Amino acid sequence: MSEALCVTLLVSGQPQAFVDLFSLTHGSLASTPIGAGSPTSVPQAASLSEETAALLSQELVAAHQAYRTGDHEASYESYQQLAEHSIAHQQLPNAKFFYERCLQVSQEHAWTEGQAAAHTNLGMLAEQLGHLQDAEGHYEQHLALASIQQAQEAHGAERSAAFVNVMKVYQERARTLAEAGDGEACLEALHKWIHAAEQSGDQGALAQAHMQMGLAYQQQGEHSQAVKSLQEYIQLCLHLDHIQAEAQAFCALADCQQLLGNLEGAVQSLQAFLLKSRHHDAQGEAYACCNLGVLYYRQRQYDEALTYFERFFEAAQALKDQHMLDVARVNLGMVRAALTFTDYVADSDLQTLLLWKNVRMPFKEQAPVTLSVR
Fold first, then answer.
1. In tens digits, what is the pLDDT along the chain, a chain of 374 residues?
2. pTM > 0.85: yes or no
3. d(CA 267, CA 287)
4. 3-state secondary structure of 69
């Protein structure tokens, strides 16, 4: 059936419609413009029903006749209908072919609205196909076109929608790149997300982007940069309801501050974490209490360390976490020993303490004990 239709199109004076239908049914599209043979993508050959082949033939003829007479909107509409039909039948490569035709028609006639819609559709299709970099490019083009029209009030909503799409794909690209271990490209995508959020005025998206940037820097071991991004996120949260995520930010901030040697800042961040995570994250509260105890212990503030280690022990009991309970008992033993033998235990490690308890082996100078639970 499709071969007969191809021959009919050719002998009836519809060479471009013939080329497109033949290519769609035989998978041989070339990267040439309308009028020169074919579009910009190469769909896979597909087995088409007689009904679908007849529809393709009809709409392709309508599209090319409209194109020859200069009716670009009618040509665009025919290609769009073919794209929508292809999507409905799960023929996504064919849909990409037709949306690219829409884009080409609208570009040739400098029709901005048509270009914007085509780029949006191609971006959404690229997301479905898992081609996030292609989606990013189309959404950026849509945003650029919408920004040109921003002086016209009618296009304000379209610009907002363009920002939503482009920020969504930046976020998804950052996630997939992080999972792939490409930290540099992940940070680049996050920088783009932050820039777009700043331009759009979306404070929620801007905060979320700074949070992810901070965590990405932390993962990369760039703790100074992580601190800046996390503090930026926390500042933005003053006007947002991000309680649980804000608590996570304080926790990550404390980790970075500890690694940078800022123990006072780490204490403040963990105390803020406890306030934010109260009744929301029991395991996180236990972690914070343990680490606050450790920080105070390292600064030889044993009474404060004891207070937090006791809270940690109570939290471990409530969670019924055997590992936490074991660590909590060790922590309590260490700090109580420090309070009893202040001149010795503060400078001893766990192994030395256990040996002293068993055989009264003398203490030796050691680095302060560091214990933590994640």
1. 456 666 666 656 676 777 777 777 666 543 345 554 444 454 444 556 667 777 777 788 888 888 888 899 999 999 999 999 889 988 898 899 999 999 999 999 999 999 999 999 999 999 999 999 999 999 999 999 988 776 555 557 888 899 999 999 999 999 999 999 999 999 999 999 999 999 999 999 999 999 999 999 999 999 999 999 999 999 998 888 777 788 889 989 999 999 999 999 999 999 998 888 776 778 888 888 999 999 999 888 999 999 999 999 999 999 998 988 988 898 898 888 888 876 555 455 555 555 545 444 444 433 333 434 44
2. no
3. 13
4. helix
The label of the residue with tokens 């001149």 reads: 343
Measure the CA–CA gap between 311 and 270, rounded to whole angstroms.
14
Written as one string, the DSSP assignment of 177-230 is HHHTT-HHHHHHHHHHHHHHHHHHT-HHHHHHHHHHHHHHHHHHT-HHHHHHHH
Contact indicator for 331, 312 with CB cutoff of 8 Å: yes
Q: How many CA atoms lie within 13 A of 110 on its CB side?
A: 1
Evaluate the CA torsion angle 320, 322, 328, 332 in order and state its sign: positive
CA pair distance 92, 180, nearest whole angstrom: 26
The DSSP code sequence of 344-357 is: HHTT--HHHHHHHH
User: Rounded CA gap, 124 and 99, in Å?
Assistant: 11
User: What is the secondary structure of 138-187 as a DSSP string?
Assistant: HHHHHHHHHHHTTTSGGGHHHHHHHHHHHHHHHHHHHHHHHHTT-HHHHH
